[in-house]
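Input/output pair, single chain:
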Amino acid sequence: MANAPNDVQLFEVNLISDQVNKLLRRRTLQQLSGIAVAVMLAVGAVLALLMAMHLATALRMRSGTQIKTKEVADLKKICADLDRQRDLAQQRQDAIAPLLPIARQRVAWAPKLAAAAAALPPGTGIVNLQATQRDVFVLRTAAGAKSGPSAFATQDEAGLPQMGIAILFTPSPDGEDNLGVYAERLKKDEMFMDKFDAVHLVAMEQDTWQNRPVEVLHVHAQGTPK
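Output:
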C-alpha cells in the first residue's frame, strides 16, 4: 500500500488549441457574415433602384394614359360636333335642294337687257320687250314646231328661255337703214347669247307715228334649258 500513490497515472488535456480553433471559426464566420451583409445591402440597393425606376415608368405611363384618355375624349367631342354640323349642313342642303335647278338654269336677264340696248342702231328705240323662262318654275309640255306669229306663243307654252324685242325706227329716204343687222349684233354678243341658241328676225311691220312713217322690227331670241 505504501507504493500505491506511485501507481496513479496523471495526464494533461490541452484545450488551448480547441479554443483557438473555435475563435478562428467564429472570426471567419463574422467575416463571412459581414461580406454577406454587404452583398445583401448591395443587392437591396440595386433592387430598390430598379423598383424606383419601374415605379417612375409606371407613373409616366399612367400619366400618359390619362393624357391619351383626355385626348380621346376631346376627339370624341370634336367628332360629335362635326357630325352635328354635317347633319345641320345636310338639313340645309335638303331645304334648298328644290332651288338648285333654278340656280343652275336661271337666265341672268339684266346683262341681256344691257346687251340688247347697247346693240341698238342710232335713232332707234325699243317699243316692247318680253322675256320668259317658265321652264324653271313650270314643267315643260310637248309642243309641235310651228311657224309664223303663233310660234312665240307655242314656244312660250313649252317653257323655253326666250326674249322678244320690238324696235321702232324711222326709215331713211335712201333706204340705207337696214335693221336686219341688229340680230347679227346680238349673235356676236357672248353675254346676250348665254343660254340662248338662236337669234333671228321674226317680222317687220309698217306703221305711223306722229304722222310719220315708221317701221317696227321684231327680233326673237330663244334658248334651250341647260
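The chain has two domains: 16-97, 106-222. The longest helix spans residues 16-96.
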